Amino acid sequence: MPALRTDGLTKYYGDVRGVEDLSFDVEGGEVFGFLGPNGAGKTTTIRTLMGFQSPTDGTAMVLDADIRDAEALRTVRADIGYLPAEPSFNENVTGRRLLAYHGALRGDVRSDELLELFDPPLDRKVREYSRGNKQMLAIVLAFMHDPDLLIMDEPTSGLDPLKQEELLAFIRSEQQRGKTFFFSSHILSEVRKVCDRIAIIRDGRLVELEAVESLIDRSGKTVRARLGGEVEAAELALDGVHDVEISGDAASPEPEERRDSAVGPDHATTVSFTYTGAYEPLLERLLEYEILDLSIEEAPLEDVFMRFYGEDPSERVEAVENGARRDATDEDDKNARRRAERSEEADV
Amino acid sequence: MFETTRFDAERLAPSSVVIGASIAAFGGMMTLIAPGILGDVDLETLFEQLPAAMVEQMGLRHMGTLEGFIAIELYEYVWLLGLGAYLAYLAGGTIAGDVENGRMDTLLVAPVSRARLLGERYLALLTPIVVVNVVTFAGVYGATLLIAESIPLVDLAAVHTLSVPYLLACGAFGMAVSVAAPRRRIAEGVAAGTIIGTFLLEMLVSGTDVSWLGAIAPMRYYDPLGALTESAYDPTGAGILLAVAVVLLVGSAWLFGEVDV
Amino acid sequence: MKTATDGAPAEGPSAVSPLAEVARFEGRNRLTVTAVLAVLFSAFGALYIWIGPQMIDAGFSEMLDAMPPIVNELFGFESLASIEGLLASEFYTLGWIVGLGGYLAYTAAGTVAGDLGEGRMDTLLAGPVARRSVLLGKFVAVLVPIVVLNVVVPAVLYVMALAAGQSLSIVDLAVVHALSIPYLLFWSAFGLLVGAVVRRGRTAGRLALGIVFLGWLGESVIATTDYKWVGGISPMRYFDPQDVLIHGTFDLVGAVILLVGVAVLLTASHHWFGTRDL
User: Fold this and answer.
1) A201 to each of A1, A6, A15, A307, C262, how far by Cα in Å?
2) Is the pLDDT of residue B133 over 70?
3) DSSP 8-class letter at A109
4) How many angstroms separate the CA atoms of C237 and B249, rounded?
5) What is the dihedral of CA B166, B168, B173, B176, to 10 degrees?
6) Which of A192-206, B37-51, B142-156 has the lowest mean pLDDT?
7) CA atoms within 13 A of residue C267's CA, in its CB half-sphere
8) How many beta carbons lie within 10 A of that of residue A40, not counting itself?
9) How confident is the model at residue A342 (pLDDT cuts 50, 70, 90)?
10) Angle of helix C101-117 relative to helix C131-141, nearest 10 degrees?
11) Contact yes or no for B261 and A92 at CB 8 A
C-alpha cells in the first residue's frame, strides 16, 4: 500500500475548479515533488489531503486512512507532519510556549535535536518573528513527533540559502530513515536535488507524473555545435530536433570578407537545439559538416518545465524568447523566417 | 488532555482579570454611593398611585432599595448586556479567527478531532466567566461591608451563579456563529450584535402585547433583579439556558466537522 | 516601440491628493457595514414606532418616577409619554450614544492599530504619502457611516412615523442628528488616538470600546451626585438627545466643545503617529 494515494481527487469551490481528477501514488520512503505554477492547485490538493477541506469527488488514502473518514484521518495524523505554505501562529505567545502546546497535542520526541538545526528565538514572542523564524518554528513543529509521512507546502520559502540547504540535506537524511515526503515547490533546483519523482499540475489537472531522471532524459539534450560553412535549419530537421537556433559565427573574420564570400572554408555557423532522439542519427548528420565545436548537455530543468507551465495545454510551449511564447506547431515556419531576417541583418 | 483549554485560558486570563477588576471597582463604587443616591425617593406614595398588578409584575416594590439599585445598575446592564455581548464576541472570534489566519491548519494537524477542539475552546471561555464573577462578587460584597445597608449574601451569590448558564449560552451562541460565519469580523459582529439586539428587543417588548417576542432573548431566562430583590431564583430558566447552550454546541461541533476550513 | 502608455498621460501618482485616496479606499471598505447598520437601526427604530403607542398606553411614564434617578439618567428616561421621549431614551441613548459611539471608536482604533500591527502601514507609507494624510484619510473615511446613518435613519423614522400616524417633529429629529455628528466625530478621533498608541488592532479596538462604555456609565452615575462637574470630562455630557426631542432646546456650546475635542485628539494622534517608529 502506498503511503499516499489519490484516486480521482477533485475539489471545486462552487464553480471554480481547485483540482480535478488527480490520481497518483506516493510510495513509502520516496520524496515526491508536487509542482505547478502559482494557482495551479497545489495548496488545494495538500489541504484536501490533510482533511482541512473535503473533496468534491474522488478521494485519497493517506497512510491507509480515507480522507473522507474524519475519525480514521484523525488517528493517522499522529504519524503525519505538515508544513503549511504560510505558517501562522498565535502572535502573542513565545515560541517556547507554542512548542509546548503543539507538542502536547501531537507529541514531542525530537524537538531538542531539531532545534539545533532550525533555531528560532524561542523566548521571544511570535509577533516579533521574522518570516524565516516562523518557517523554522513551523519546520520544528512538523518534525517534532517524528512522523512517517511529511506533507510540506513550499518548505524552503522564507529561509535563507544556508537554511534551505540544511533543510534539503535534512530531508535527504530523513529519507534514509525511511520517511516519506510529499512536497510542493516551484523551485526547480531543490526539486532536482531531493525528489525521486514529480507530479506537475496545471490549472488543477495532472499533466505529468514521472521520475525526475527519466523526465530529464526524455526531455532530451541541449546540443550546441559550431559548424563550418553556412547551415540551414531545414538541413537539421531530424526527428527529435526542436527549437533550432542558428547564428552567424561571431568569431568569423572581418564583415567585408564575409560579404564578399558568403560561403567559404573560414566561415562558421553556430547551431543550437534541443534533441530527444538517439545519438547515432544526430552524429551522422553532424558529421556531414566540419565540426569546429560540439557540446551535448542535459537540458536545463527550467526548459523542461516551461513546456508544462504554458497557458494552453493543447500547445506545447517550447521556449520563451523576447517575452513572446512560441509553440511547436509553427515552429519551423517561424524559425525559418527569423533566420532569414537574421542573416539579412548580418549581411547588410 | 485539555491542552487547548489551558492554552486558551492562559491567553484569556489577563483580559479577564482587567475586566473583572474594572467591573468590581465600578460595582463597588456603585454600592458605596447608593445610599446617598437612593435617599430621596418616596416609593410608597408612588406605588399607591400605580396599579397593584403592575407593581407586582415589575418588581417595583424593591426598585429603590440597595439591591434593586445594584441589580439594575450593575447586573442588568453590565452583566446581561456588556458581559453577555463580550462572551459572544469572544466566542465568535475563536474558530472564525483561527480559520481566517491559517492557525487552524497548524492545530488540526494534531490527532485531535474538530469536535474536541471546539469543545476545549468553549471550555476556555469559563476563564473570563469565572474570573469576572468571582472578582465582582468579592468587590460588591466587600463594598456592602463598608456601608450601613447590606445585600443578602445568598442572593448575591445566586445572581452570580445563575449568570454562569446565561453567559455560557451567550458563549455557545458565539461558537455557533464562529463556525458558520465566513470571516472573523462578521462572526464577532453578528455574535455580539445579536446579543445586544435581543437585549433591546426584550427590553422593548416586555409588558406589551407582543412580549412573547422576547422569548428568543436569553435575558428572559436570567433575572438578576428578581434574584436580588425578591430572592426569586429561576432554576428553570438556568436549565433552559444550559440546554440551549448544549444544543448550540452540539450543532456547532457537527457543523465544524462538515465544513472546509 | 509601442507601449501601454502611448497616447495616455504617464501613470504617475494620481492627481488626487494622497489623503483623498486613502479616504476613498477606506471609505469604500466601510460601505457594507454602514449599509448593515443603517438597516439594523431602521428596523430597530421601526420597532419603536410600532410598539411605542402600547408603551405609552401602558402607563410607563408613571413608572419612571418610581425608578431611581440613576436609571433615568442612564437611559435618558425623561418622558415615555411620547414617541420622541421613547426614542430619546433607549434608541438614541443606547443606539447612538453607546452603540454607534462605541462602534466608531472601536473601528477607528482598529483600522490604525491593525495597519500598524500587521505591517500594512509599511506598504502604505512606502509610497510618497505623509503619515498625516494616512491618519486624516482614515478619519475622513469614518464620515461614511456617520453621514449615511445620520441621513438615512431619521428619514426612515420620519416616514414610518407618518405612515403609522404618529407625530414626530422633523425639526427636532434633524437637530438631534446634526448635533450627534460632533459627538460621533469625537469618538472617532479618540479611536484614532488609541489606535496610534496601542498599535494592536484587536486590543486597541476593545480598549476604545471599553472607554466609551465607561464614559457612558460614569457620566450617568456622576450626574446624579453632587460631583456632577466631574462628568464634564465625559463627551456624553455634551450631547443630549432628551434636550432636543423632549424640551426642544439644544446645546450648541456642547457641540463646539466636542469639535474642539476632535481637533485636540487629532493633533495628539498626529503628533504621536508622526514621531514614533512604525
Assistant:
1) 24, 14, 19, 12, 57
2) yes
3) S
4) 43
5) -170
6) B37-51
7) 6
8) 24
9) very low
10) 150
11) no
Which of B16, B22, B37, B101 to mutate: most C Cβ within 10 Å?
B37
Residue A12 bridge partners (DSSP): A17
Chain B touching partners, 3 or more CB pairs below 8 A: A, C
Question: Average pLDDT for residues C259-268, to the nearest whole number?
Answer: 96
In the block, residue with C-alpha cell 441589580: B71
Contacts for C56 with CB less than 8 Å, ≥ 6 apart:
C80, C81, C82, C83, C86
CB-facing half-sphere around the CA of C213: CA atoms within 13 A: 21
Q: Output the pTM of the full model.
A: 0.80
Searching chain B, which residue's CA lies closest to the CA of residue A91? B103
> For cell 469536535, what's the residue?
B115
For residue A197, list its beta bridge partners. A32, A211
Interface of C with B in 106-165 (CB under 8 A): none
Instruction: State the Cα–Cα distance between residues A101 and B110, nearest whole angstrom.
Output: 11
Cell of A137: 518554528
Task: Please state, rounded to an integer, the average pLDDT across all residues of chain A.
Answer: 83
Strand-pair partners of B166: none
Boundaries of every domain in chain C? 17-275
The answer to whether residue A127 neighbours chain B at the CB level (below 8 Å) is no
Rounded Cα distance between A284 and C255, Å, is 96
Task: Give the integer Cα–Cα distance in Å for B211 and B201.
Answer: 9
**Contacts of residue A174, Cβ cutoff 8 Å, sequence gap at least 6:** A143, A150, A181
Q: Is the dihedral of CA B194, B204, C104, B85 positive or negative?
A: negative
Structure confidence by residue, pLDDT tens digits, C77-132: 666 667 787 788 778 888 899 899 999 999 999 999 988 888 888 888 887 888 88
Q: Which residues from C are below 8 Å from B210, CB to CB?
A: 51, 54
Which DSSP letter does residue C10 get? P
**CB neighbourhood size of B56 (10 A):** 10
Please name the residue of chain C whose CA is at the shortest distance from the CA of residue B69.
C68
AA identity, residue A296:
I
Give the C-alpha distances (Å, rounded to integers) separating C167 from A38, A192, B99, C161, C164.
63, 81, 50, 7, 9
Give the separation between CA C120 and CA C114, rounded to whole angstroms: 8
Q: Are strands A31-35 and A180-185 parallel, antiparallel or unpaired?
A: parallel
Pairwise CA distance, residues B260 & A44, whole Å: 11
Check the CA dihedral A61-A63-A68-A69 and report its sign: positive
Beta-carbon contacts of residue A81 (< 8 Å; ≥ 6 apart): A142, A143, A145, A147, A149, A150, A151, A152, B109
Q: What is the DSSP letter of C99?
A: I
Cα gap C80→C86, rounded to integer Å: 5
Kindly write down the DSSP assignment for every residue of A175-220, as one continuous string: HHTT-EEEEEE--HHHHHHH-SEEEEEETTEEEEEEEHHHHHHHT-
Measuring CA to CA, how many Å separate A279 from each of A119, A223, A234, A303, B10?
A: 50, 11, 19, 20, 69
Distance CA B69, CA C117 (A): 42
Q: What is the DSSP string of chain B?
A: --HHHHHHHHHHHHHHHHHHHHHHHHHHHHHHHHHHHHTT--HHHHHHHS-HHHHHHHTGGGTTSHHHHHIIIIIIIIIIIIIHHHHHHHHHHHHHHHHHTTHHHHHHTSS--HHHHHHHHHHHTHHHHHHHHHHHHHHHHHHHHHSS----HHHHHHHHHHHHHHHHHHHHHHHHHHHH-SSHHHHHHHHHHHHHHHHHHHHHHTTSTTGGGGGGSGGGG--HHHHHHH----HHHHHHHHHHHHHHHHHHHHHHHHS--
Q: Do B77 and C44 touch (CB under 8 A)?
A: no
B87 compared with C10, residue with greater pLDDT: B87
ipTM of the complex in this document:
0.81
C76: left (phi over 0), alpha (psi -120 to 50) or beta: left
> Could you tell me the three cell numbers for B6?
489551558
